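Researcher: Please translate sequence to structure tokens.
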Amino acid sequence: MKNKLFTGFDTRQYMNSGEFEVFYYKDMNLEHIVDHSHPHYEVYFFLDGDVSYNIEGKQYNLQYGDYLLIPPGIKHHPIFHSTGQNYQRFVLWISEDYYNTMCSWSQDFAYSFQYVAEHKEYRFRTDFITFQDIQGRLLDMLEELHGNKAFHQLNSQLMVHSFILFLNRITYDMLHQVAVAYENVLYLNICDYINNHLSEDLSLDHLASFFYASKYHISHVFKDNMGISLHQYILKKRLQASKNGILSGIPFKELYHQYGFSDYTSFYRAFKKEFGLSPKEFREQKTLPEGY
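Model: Translation complete:
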């Protein structure tokens, strides 16, 4: 079955599908391929060959287990150093519209390519076992795409979504192996900043700008250390502070504006969900009767 999944090399740099395409190439004695770019996302997995890759003028020497992330509009081309050797690789193309649709469901889909866009680093290196797992998933995807089983089109889409998240996890784990101490400091600094600025802008965009870090990186670092999302942590802290505000006699209208709620209804629902009481019920419960 594996040999049936090989794709004859096609020089086209445009997609026939509006969603995604997967190729499993095995070639020999390919001629020079000119520098090019295309309007879709490319994920390239290197298996074998005496090849390096030039991306935006930077040359990467490739070895088994490397993968490249190439966003739309980025110029790239392979460089062949010898002839008579197999040049073997997987290539996954994802259209920009389909990629944007995935990211509209969850920004987690954007993690790896967001990192590439910010750092201009396009090559990632995996270990043998991890790359065997990647290869197996890509072969399963190709079999599904080229098969005719019931619901194969929908299942192929689910496999692509799952694969991108799997790859993002690999990228994330790889990038964070050497930065544990930095992450701990970043996490503690974020907590400290939140606790001292509960009435101010605590959006992810603002925190990313303040700490000079990717908002996706901040989200993952915080979730890994705290066990809940950054948004949940900020909400809990603001609701706890609002309890103190209620006991201090601050009017509800002033209170919900102070802690980032757009209206009293959203404040009421969040407060009751967190504490089991409405803000009014909490105030009445904690107010001592006159003359007590």
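Researcher: Any highlights?
Model: Strands lie at 20-28, 40-48, 51-55, 58-61, 66-70, 76-80, 86-95, 123-125.
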